[in-house]
Amino acid sequence: MAPLHKVIFLVLFAFLLVLPFMVYPVFAMKLMCFALFAAAFNLLLGFGGLLSFGHAAYFGGASYVAAHAAKVWGLTPELSVLVGTAAAAFLGLIIGSLAIKRQGIYFAMVTLAFAQMVYFIALQAEFTGGEDGIQSVPRGDLFGLISLHDNTALYFFVLAITFGGVLALYRITHSPFGQVIKAIRDNETRAVSLGYDVNRYKLMVFVLSATFAGLAGATKSQVFQLASLTDVHWSMSGEVVLMTLLGGMGTVFGPLAGAAVIVTMQNYLASFGAWVTIIQGVIFVLGVMLFREGIVGVLSRWLKRPL
Amino acid sequence: MFELLGIPPQVLMGQLLLGLINGSFYAVLSLGLAVIFGLLNIINFSHGALYMMGAFASWMLLNYIGIGYWPALILAPLIVGAFGVVLERLLLNKLYHLDHLYGLLLTFGLALILQGVFRNYYGISGMPYQIPESLSGGQNLGFMFLPNYRAWVIVASVVVCFGTWFVIEKTRLGAYLRAGTENPVLVGAFGINVPLMITLTYGFGVALAGFAGVLAAPIYSVNPNMGADLIIVVFAVVVIGGMGSILGAIITGFGLGIVEGLTRVFYPEGSAVVIFVIMAIVLLIKPEGLFGRAA
Predict the structure, then answer these.
(1) Residue B140 β-bridge partners
(2) Pick from A256, A250, A252: nearest CA to A292
(3) How far does B27 lie from chain A, in Å, by closest CA?
(4) Distance between CA atoms of B23 and B274, rounded to whole angstroms?
(5) For residue A61, which of A281, A216, A260 has the smallest C-alpha distance?
(6) B140 by DSSP, 3-state: which?
(7) What is the structure's pLDDT at B3?
(8) In this structure, are residues B210 and B50 in contact, taking their beta carbons and an 8 Å threshold?
(9) Rounded (10°) angle between helices B172-182 and B194-216
(10) Does residue A273 sit at the B interface (CB-CB below 8 Å)?
(11) pLDDT band for position B1 (cuts 50, 70, 90)
(12) How far apart are CA A238 and CA A38, in angstroms?
């Protein structure tokens, strides 16, 4: 790990250790879940160059499965999260293997349409509770021992998952595998001619991205004790694109910053109703027109260092 | 009366009609997307929001200045089209040199803004729009009752779709358009104003969405979210049809509307997802779409 990145991660970790004592812990946990979601999405878009417009399917799908596992099967929190994540990985494998047959905007449309399929299933299937979602999911005991009913205990559980997830994503992007992914993004034809099985790599990065998005969603359902249609709706897919774009796609810390800005904004502007949507739309338009590097992208250019 | 697989013919025909009407909207909208995509290489995510704007434009024309359905059928698409021209001039034309994903993201942002603005002023509950008097009532066909307005929607959509197809595939103007998509530089060298052509094409494609909105206003309640979920189905239609052909967009649009209607008869739970299931199957067998050219 580059020394600068190591320092930033350490500062970030120290900050997250004290955060629950400064703000409402549930808000801080929501921030972390979305930061992991955006980082997972960035693996696909920023490093893989693949714009999925249906990542809500993995985020929300995992949240339903984890909520069901905790509530109906009575699994412990860590197992529920694990089951939800595995479901997202499986879903990512099925959808990804079909979606990678198309490129560019078709790819985006295909992922969007499949996500809509997942949405309709969440709306109509027996176990999902339709419009109500799965409510009052029990928080349970970690490893059957440590009670997570206390917000602070839960916070550190969520911190371990999300921070670990972000570090794992960092590890993936900075591995030889990550180099191949970036090579495919930059010049697919060249990667083919170098002998890489491009479709296999694309599918792998798709599944990895879906898995970590699922990890984020499953964790979120444990925090809010709720799995709801909001998490599988296509506007959630749009939101994660917005976070990544705003923070800076293809950067390490951009998605985390983008998620923090958007979640904070939604939190404090919630009383303005539809204005939140309008502001998000304006950020999209400005981001695309003037600010394509994103916050961290610009910082990184100023500092002349990859961030 | 005869029965087909235990389904009374009234039910079957009723759902077929409903499917054909939905199909009309799919066809007009995916046609607009195909026209825009052909020349601008942009997937217009705001298409659903512009369709919603068309419906609102006709509602406003009636309720604010008393202009009725028939003039609105011309005026509302013009308003939406003019709005599209402004969008293209101000924003979209700055993106053509970039990865086309940015066009998708920009139009997505525009859709959020448009929906948010209308939601702020009109809330999310729908507003009714009367069927014009000249088209109220219906015909008794013996086996079913056919409302005049619905028949009109189907006829109008078919006429507009094939009119557009004719202009693009069979006229000189269409030849310029098609040449412009193949090689804009060369066409420009022949003295044709390609940027103007692109702007007007976007305006036209968007006006088609506005036209669909006016047609939809008396059937569905006019509300800010009416385009949001429809557009995703239309995207699926586009993936199934393949973007290469104008005719593909039209035929797939009507066809999938009918398939959806039939599914509602035989397996109601599946009607919301049947189009996406078909999309998955088409992707497995023919990834470029039914009418698409191989990439």
Answers:
(1) B145
(2) A250
(3) 17
(4) 14
(5) A216
(6) strand
(7) 60
(8) yes
(9) 110
(10) yes
(11) very low
(12) 11
Question: Distance between CA atoms of B85 and B72, rounded to whole angstroms?
Answer: 19
Count CB pairs under 8 A between chains A and B: 119
Taking the mean position of all CA atoms in its chain, how far away is CA B256? 13
- Indicate yes or no: CB of B106 within 8 angstroms of CB of A289: yes
Whether the CB-CB separation of B110 and B49 falls below 8 Å is answered with: yes
For residue B185, count other CB atoms closer than 10 A to its CB: 8
| Residue of A109, A121, A276 lying closest to B235 (CB–CB) | A109
The residues, any chain, with a CB within 8 Å of residue A12's CB and separated by 6 or more, are A256
Contacts of A294 in chain B (CB under 8 A): none
Contact A231, A30 (CB under 8 A): no
Q: Which helix (H) or strand (E) holds A122?
A: helix A104-124
- In chain A, which residues have pLDDT < 70? none
What is the C-alpha to C-alpha distance for residues B18 and A205, in angstroms, rounded to an integer?
Answer: 42
Provide the angle, in degrees to the nearest 10, between the axes of the packed helices A56-71 and A77-99: 150
> Minimal Cα–Cα distance from B85 to chain A, Å?
17
Reported ipTM: 0.87
For residue B283, which residues of chain A lie inside 8 Å, CB to CB?
Answer: 98-99, 101-102, 110
C-alpha B201/C-alpha B281 separation (Å) is: 32
CA atoms within 13 A on the CB side of B107: 28
Q: How far apart are CA B236 and CA A234, in angstroms?
A: 14
Amino acid B55 reads: A
Tens of pLDDT, residue by residue over A215-224, are: 999 999 999 9
